Amino acid sequence: MAGRMMPLKVVHLITELNVGGAEQMLHKLTGTMDPVEFQSNVVSMTDVGPIGERIQAQGTAVYSLGMRLGKPNPLAFFRLYHILKRIRPDVLQTWLYHADLLGLVAGRLAGIGRIVWGVRCSDMDLKDYSPMTRWVVRANALLSPLPDAIVVNSEKGKRVHAELGYATGKMCLIPNGFDLNRFQPSDEARKSVLSELNLTQEAVLVGLVARHDPMKDHETFLMAASMVAEKESPVHFLLIGKGIEAGNRRITKFIREGQQDRFHLLGVREDMPRWTAALDIAVSASAYGEGFSNTVGEAMASGVPCVVTDVGDNARIVGGAGLVVPPGEPEALAQALIRLVDLGKEERKKMGDRARRQMAAEFEIGHVARRFEALYRQSAAGCRP
Predict the structure, then answer these.
(1) What is the radius of gyration, based on Cα positions, of the chain?
(2) pLDDT in tens, the chain (385 residues)
(3) What helix, strand, coil percent values describe the chain, rounded to 5?
C-alpha cells in the first residue's frame, strides 16, 4: 500500500489444518501473497496438522488453540484473544463456520476492527451436520451483517447462503486458485505411476481423489466404475484420499468379485501432482456440499479432462473441457466415463489442453491472491469491498 511503512498484518483463523480444500487454499494463498506488503499469521482452532507444517515451512507463523472438534473450550477462546491482542492484525480472515463465529466474537473483544468471514460450502442439507454445526450456521446467518465482508468461493455457495439468511450485501466471490507450475501435464508422471502399479502403457487411468466422506459419494463412483470395468478392459480406477485403503470395508464391499485388480486403493499420497498428472480422466462424484472442488481444479491444471457431478460450481468450472452428470446416478456417470474412454488418447488430450487453458485464464493462484490482497487493502482502509 502506497505510503505504508509496515506490512499490513493479516491473521487467518481456520478450524483445522489437516488435508482439505479450505486448508490447501489457505496454504496456497499465504505462500503467494506479497510478503513485503502483507504479513500473514495462521491460527488453527485444533492442532497444527500437516498443512500447518507446510505453511510454517514457507515462513508463516502458525499457532494452535488445541481444541478438539465438536468440543467447546473456553481456554481456547482466551488463547485466541491473547494472540489477537499481541499481533493486533489489520484484518482477521476466518475460514469455515466455527472459525467465523469464534473469530467474530474474539476479534471484536480484542479490538480487531476489520473481520472477513470465509464460507466455502454449497448444496447444504443441515440435517447431515451435527447439532452444534447446525446451531453455528444459524447463528452465523443472524450475525452475518457484522463482518466487513464474507468471501464465498462459488456462485452456488453464494445462493445457498443467501437462502440461509446470510447478508448478501457483504458477500464477495473469490474462487479457488491453482498453481499451474506445480500441477501441469507430465508424461514422466504417467510412466512412473504405471510402473509403480505394474500396468502397461495401454492402461487407461481413471482417478477419484477424495477423503472417505458421505459427501464425496464413493458408493456412486464405485458402482459406475464396476459398470465401466465390464465394458472397457484396459480401464483401471485409482482412489486416493484419507481412509481409502484396502482395509476399509465400506469401500471394498462395492468392488465386484473378479474386478479387484482393476481398483487401486492408495490412501493419502504426498506427491499429488505426480498422481494427478498420470490420470487419463479425473472424477468428482460428490453428492452435495462442494463449492469449488480443489481436486477438479488440480486435474484441469494438469491437463486432465474431468467427469463431474452437477454440484456447486462444477459445471461452470469444467465448461467445455469435461462432462457433467447428475449427482447420485451411477448409470449416468458410467456412460460419461465410457464416452471419454472411447474418445481415445488424442481427443482426451485436446480436452485436457482446453481445461488447462481455462485454469490459466480464470483460476491461476497469482490472479486469485491479488483479489484477496485487494480485499484486505479495502477492509484495512475501511472501504466497502
Answers:
(1) 21
(2) 444 568 999 999 999 998 788 999 999 999 999 999 999 999 999 999 999 999 999 999 999 999 987 777 889 999 999 999 999 999 999 999 999 999 999 999 999 999 999 998 776 666 666 788 889 999 999 999 999 999 999 999 999 999 999 999 999 999 999 999 999 999 999 999 999 999 999 999 999 999 998 889 999 999 999 999 998 889 999 999 989 988 888 888 888 887 889 999 999 998 999 999 999 999 999 988 778 889 999 999 999 999 999 998 999 999 889 999 999 999 999 999 999 999 999 999 999 999 999 999 999 999 999 999 999 999 998 765 5
(3) 45, 20, 35
Q: Cell match 489489520: residue? A: 90
pTM: 0.88
Smallest CA-to-CA distance from 80 within 42, 48, 120, 50 is with 42
Closest of 54, 32, 62, 272 to residue 174, by C-alpha: 32
| Contact between 258 and 294 (Cβ < 8 Å) | no
